[in-house]
Design a protein that fits this description.
The chain has 190 residues and is mostly beta strands. The chain is built from two helices and 14 strands; from the N terminus they run αβββββαβββββββββ. It folds into two domains: 25-108, Beta Barrel (OB fold (Dihydrolipoamide Acetyltransferase, E2P)); 115-189, OB fold (Dihydrolipoamide Acetyltransferase, E2P) (Beta Barrel). It has helices at 2-23, 71-75; strands at 25-27, 29-39, 44-49, 54-59, 66-68, 78-79, 89-97, 100-108, 115-125, 130-134, 140-153, 156-159, 170-178, 181-189. The protein is globular, with a radius of gyration of 20 Å.
């Protein structure tokens, strides 16, 4: 009886420590936009987001925050304070909600030109790494998913190769044209 009670307490103690560890991790999300202003004294970054609103992000100033981000994606980013150039079109990696977001890293997408397509997935080929999206006008566009494509799903940011979409899902794809083919740079489930 005492042994059973002791084992139960040990089990509950382990379960409690797992709960504390899990709650301390921050899930990283991503969005695209243009850096509109930088305020170094307050360590904030303003981004004109692709959805038409301006978002404020604090710089992650403490290494004590534990974030969960795909290692492959992390290798292709820079710290938020290292890549802040006004006018740069970027993917912002952040945690938090709309009122209190902290930028973890940025990925500069370059000079463009860029396209943005929002619509319904009509075809998703995971093995061929392509996604076809039909917009409101009925026009379908197929994008190649490349090694450096970033995707935002319901559980946070993932490598584009790990992104899973089904026919009928609503998505937004930011892409560019390389060698005559449309390539997805960023995909987001809506």
């Amino acid at each position: 009886m005492v042994k059973t009670l002791w084992c139960g307490r040990v089990f509950l103690g382990c379960l409690g420590s797992l709960t504390v560890a899990a709650s301390a991790q921050q899930v990283v999300h991503a969005l695209t936009g243009t850096v509109s202003s930088i305020d170094d004294p307050s360590k904030t970054l303003m981004v004109f987001q692709d959805n038409g609103s301006e978002g404020q992000f604090k710089d992650m100033t403490t290494a004590k925050s534990h974030v969960v981000i795909d290692k492959k994606i992390a290798l292709d980013t820079s710290a938020a304070d290292a890549n802040k150039k006004k006018g740069a079109y970027v993917i912002v990696f952040y945690y938090g909600d709309n009122d209190d977001r902290t930028a973890v890293a940025l990925k500069n997408l370059g000079a463009g030109p860029f396209s943005s397509t929002e619509g319904t997935v009509t075809k998703f080929e995971g093995k061929q790494h392509t996604i076809t999206v039909q917009d409101k006008s009925g026009t379908a566009q197929t994008f190649k998913i490349a090694q450096d494509t970033v995707a935002e799903g319901y559980m946070g940011v993932v490598d584009g190769y790990k992104f899973q979409a089904s026919k009928g899902d609503h998505v937004r794809v930011v892409g560019t044209t390389e060698n005559g083919a449309a390539t997805a740079l960023f995909m987001r489930e809506m």
